[in-house]
Each structure stands twice: as structure tokens, then as C-alpha cells.
Specification:
The chain is α+β, with helices and mostly antiparallel strands and 164 residues long. Helices cover 20% and strands 23% of the residues. The chain contains four helices and six strands; from the N terminus they run αββαβαβββα. It has helices at 17-26, 49-56, 89-94, 155-163; strands at 30-34, 41-45, 76-77, 116-120, 123-133, 138-146. It has a four-stranded antiparallel β-sheet with strand order 3-4-5-6, covered by helices on one side. Strands 1-2 form a two-stranded antiparallel ribbon.
Length: 164
């Protein structure tokens, strides 16, 4: 079993991370990856290099084909800690300024307590805040904010939003 599949890394002190990373690079188990628009170097499994090259060339791996609907047909509501939107990635990747406001005092919230980004196609196009009223078992939409107001007139988006 190679080191990336082993539980070898659990509990590794931060002081050892660099040494382990360098060893994995030297062994060819991981590769450096530069993401367009990001300053930091990232790492991926070397076995995924072919997939990354296909993606870089504009291709989509066959295994990634949607099983049912696409994000054009049905929007996706991303969780606040989703890797796409968390830690400022939404701003870098999509130009979508997203902050999870759950820990902000109510008076400092711009959108809402548990606002979710909305993915339509390959863009983050809106956000909404909601809650479940447990006394009536009713799902309540507290707010919906469109990044582009023209989406409010877009029948395709409205259908995808309803499906989501």
C-alpha cells in the first residue's frame, strides 16, 4: 500500500508536513498544480494528471457526466463550507463575493444567517437565505439575491431554480 492510501498521515505534526510533501513529490506520488488566478501552488495525485490535462484543455472526463440533470437544468445550492465557495474561493474562481455570515452579529450581516450560493451552469449567479419553521414544518425563503438582475426575467433560470 502506498503512503497516500495509508493512514500514515493521521496525527502528523505540522513540522513534518514539508518533509512528507517533498518525499511524495520525489516519489512521484503527487504533482504540483497551478490554478489560474491563484498565487499558491497546490498538489494533486500524480495518477490524476491525465484528468487535469483534459480539464485544462477544455474537456470533461466521461465519468463526470451527470447521472440525471445538469446544473443548467437544475441549480445547485452550495453549502457554506463547500470547497467551491469556502475560504474566498468563490471570489477567486467565480468573481462571487461570498462570506458565510452565521458567525457575524445580526446587525453586520449583509444577506443572512445561513445564505447559500446558487450554482447555475458554471456560474455562481445568486444566493438565498432560508429557514425551516419547525412549528408549522414550513420552509421559508427569507431572501433571494441575484448577481445579475436580468436573471429575474430569464425563464430558463426560473425553471432551473424551481427544479433545484
Amino acid at each position: 500500500m502506498n503512503r497516500t492510501q495509508d493512514s500514515y498521515f493521521r496525527g502528523v505534526p505540522f513540522s513534518k508536513v514539508r518533509q512528507i510533501r517533498e518525499a511524495l513529490l520525489a516519489d512521484g506520488e503527487i504533482i504540483e498544480v497551478q490554478v489560474e488566478g491563484w498565487k499558491a501552488v497546490h498538489y494533486a495525485l500524480a495518477s490524476d494528471a491525465g484528468l487535469l490535462n483534459d480539464l485544462s484543455a477544455g474537456g470533461v472526463p466521461e465519468a463526470w457526466a451527470p447521472l440525471e440533470t445538469t446544473t443548467i437544468e437544475e441549480v445547485i445550492f452550495l453549502a457554506p463550507l463547500d470547497p467551491v465557495s469556502a475560504r474566498g474561493r468563490a471570489k477567486v474562481l467565480f468573481g462571487f463575493d461570498y462570506v458565510w455570515e452565521v458567525y457575524k452579529p445580526e446587525g453586520q450581516r449583509r444577506f443572512g444567517y445561513y445564505t447559500l450560493p446558487i450554482l447555475w451552469g458554471d456560474r455562481l449567479v445568486a444566493r438565498f437565505d432560508s429557514k425551516l419553521d419547525r412549528t408549522t414544518n414550513t420552509f421559508v425563503i427569507l431572501g433571494l439575491w441575484l448577481e445579475d438582475q436580468a436573471l429575474g426575467e430569464d425563464v430558463a433560470f426560473a425553471g432551473a431554480l424551481a427544479a433545484g
